[in-house]
Amino acid sequence: MKKIVLTGGGTAGHVTPNIALLPKLKEKGYDIYYIGSHNGIEKSLVQAQGIKYYGVESGKLRRYFDPKNFSDPFKVLKGISQARKLIKKINPDILFSKGGFVSVPVVLAAKSRKVPVIIHESDITPGLANKICIPNSVKVCCNFPETLSYLPPDKAVLTGSPIRSELFSGDREKALKFCGFEDDGKPVIMVIGGSSGSVIINNTLRGVLPELVKEYKVIHLCGKGKANHDYDDYKGYVQFEYISEELKDLFALTDIVISRAGANAICEFLALRKPNILIPLSANASRGDQILNADSFENQGFSKVIREENLSNLELLDTIKYVLNNKDKFIEKMANAQQKNSVDIIMDLILKYSK
């Protein structure tokens, strides 16, 4: 039986694409192992899938001054030593890395044990962890055509992001019942601010809610601790702080999505062919990767973008109307996207490069 080690962590975005590969890996007969950090978000997500999980030390790599910059390199070195022992013990045929700081010691350990490494880069420009790992890989998968210019030409493959198969099996009728909506033909808008929610998106949405519910139904994923029950009486509006199992059903009901521009989330919209309005995190609150992601999707005809600094009640209402009026054009562009069948493309690479 072939063996594969998956790695990646720090955020859910570094884990969920790995989880999306699990059904195909099992179908192909791989024995699957996961190496992550001792207490990162990846641990609970992976263990919930029944996958063998091992933790190693990982230090964060920073481009700014922090006292931990003096201690974290020693954590990385310790993590490499721990990962080498695990790689020797498991003796995998291949390693697939989704990135994040925990992936650095694991990738370096795999390379030292002559295990082929395939990396997936979510954003347009590689983050620091993947920049360190790329020279040690045989192939680098990516989500955006623009990313190809940042990668070694002999390693770069445009794949898109692996999408969880269950997202394609949503039930519209279940979603109507779950939300308490009547099936009256009104278009459905789903607003997503990320797991922690977005204050500016939440506030702007609530500011236009009286107008929106006249013409649309609104599903609002507002983030943990960010529900506002003053709006509970609006007919055609429902808010949830967090959604898990029901998300696939909500997608089946949704006509357009309003969201931040995290790479994995927008690749889900693309795979599901959901026209969308992207409001990326500002450069002040991030390294600017969401802005680049959003611009790429807009240039490819998949999305309409509102810059956070330009977000207003009127701008949001006008953009919703524009996207709904041009919904078919967005769907046609997404249907013809290069980034299709990502799980199959990545699986072909895994099969090809396994020892």
Number of beta-strand segments? 13
Q: Distance between termini?
A: 12 Å
Instruction: List low-confidence stretches.
Output: none
**The CATH topology of the largest domain:** Rossmann fold
Integer-rounded radius of gyration: 21 Å
- The total domain count is 2
> How confident is the prediction overall: mean pLDDT?
92
List the secondary-structure elements in sequence, H or E: EHEHEHEHEHEEHEHEEHEHEHEHHH
Pathway: Cell wall biogenesis; peptidoglycan biosynthesis
Domain Glycosyl transferase family 28 C-terminal: 188-346
Protein name: UDP-N-acetylglucosamine--N-acetylmuramyl-(pentapeptide) pyrophosphoryl-undecaprenol N-acetylglucosamine transferase
Subcellular location: Cell membrane
